[in-house]
Design a protein that fits this description.
By secondary structure, the chain is mainly β. The protein has one domain: Beta Barrel (M1 Pyruvate Kinase, Domain 3), CATH 2.40.33.20. The protein has 4 helices and 13 strands. It has a 7-stranded mixed beta barrel. Strands 4-3-12 form a 3-stranded antiparallel β-sheet, with no helix packed on it. Strand 7 and strand 8 form a beta hairpin. The model has no long low-confidence stretch (mean pLDDT about 95). This is MOSC domain-containing protein. One of its GO terms (molecular function) is pyridoxal phosphate binding. It comes from Agaricicola taiwanensis. InterPro entries: MoCF_Sase_C, MOSC_domain, Pyrv_Knase-like_insert_dom_sf.
Length: about 180
């Protein structure tokens, strides 16, 4: 069982690109981060609401691995926790390599199920010019690699703080690769 830790937590009641780093967030089962603009059973992302507001919200809690910030720093970008809109910044777990359905346990009580990859949008270049290209890569087979974290749904709620342990429980095989959600 892989283990990592929470580096930072963030939320924002408004739909903005970056979130606000806070001392703790409360995860509500079936809804996401209490008080966050993306909390809910159905989609909250503006473009998805416009397309079909009745679709299930597979993007309740967004996680990014802090290792991405180091990679971006090496490319000349200054990016830190909450800047890219994530609720939880992690360290020590390759989130992008997890299969769909992985269960992440944060702290004592919180359980998040990985639903897919966050698909970066053009707003990222408004935050820092050139960042959009820097968070995309090509794999060995020429496939597009999205590096802006994973999206999850809240299976069990509770408080999450920086320093909390994260354990990973893989789903039973066959493991399905992550796709954008």
């Amino acid at each position: 069982m892989a283990q990592g830790r929470v580096i930072a937590v963030a939320m924002d009641a408004e739909h903005r690109f970056s979130k606000i780093e806070v001392p703790e967030i409360r995860i509500v089962a079936g809804l996401g981060v209490e008080g966050d603009a993306h909390q809910g059973v159905t989609v909250k992302h503006r473009s998805r609401v416009a397309a079909d507001p009745t679709r299930p919200n597979l993007r309740q809690v967004h996680l990014i691995q802090a290792e991405l910030f180091d990679e971006l720093r090496d490319k000349g970008f200054a990016v830190g926790p909450a800047d890219l809109g994530e609720n939880v910044t992690t360290q020590g777990i390759d989130l992008l390599a997890l299969p769909r359905g992985t269960l992440l346990r944060l702290g004592r009580d919180v359980q998040l199920e990985v639903t897919g990859l966050r698909n970066p949008c053009g707003q990222i270049d408004e935050f820092q010019p050139g960042l959009f290209k820097a968070v995309l890569d090509k794999g060995l087979e020429g496939e597009l690699i999205r590096k802006t974290g994973v999206m999850t749904i809240a299976r069990a709620g509770g408080l999450v703080r920086a320093g909390d342990a994260i354990t990973v429980e893989l789903p039973p095989p066959p493991h399905l690769p992550l796709e954008k959600v």
